[in-house]
Amino acid sequence: MLKTLDARLAHFGYTHEWLRVGVITESGLAAQLSEFEASDDKNKEHYRCAAFLQYIKGLTAVSDSVLNSLLELTDVGSDGCDLRHNRAMELVLGDLLTDQQMTRLLERPNLQEHQCVRRAVDRAIIRLRMHAEGLTDEVFSSVCDLNDQVMQLLVLDRHDLRRNHLEWISQHGHNRALRNRSKTMLQSRKFRSA
């Protein structure tokens, strides 16, 4: 049994920074250790990931200082898993960040070239704009520039979709399925008369 706090932190690959930020607590660490000992899951990175997800689940927004602290968390486990990119993705997907925070996220050296994080941030920024402004021509232009299947599907399901949007997707959509769906929608009564 791991008796000291340092031994428990090291066992799972946490640093004291995880405690200071509040992602894991001493009682949470003890609970994870009990679960680890009783479970068949001996992948310690799963426990770090679970602690992080549990922490951000309780948030409604993230201040710049907390964001910086969360992005500075390191993994020092014997498993060798570095979950920084995963944590950045979870913050973006959790709709906790402002568009300015997401833009700054992409400026971080360890995330700059990570394509999945970049794509998630681009999608999230466009979704935020779409929510705030509606599907304006300017927002739609951002969707076109991204040329992303997920965003084009989102556009096709919007109530404020316009004929010119459908025409563009029918010609330039990310894949054949999107182009065909757009062509079918153009034939509907709603868009034939538009």
TrEMBL record:
It comes from the Bacteria. This is Uncharacterized protein.
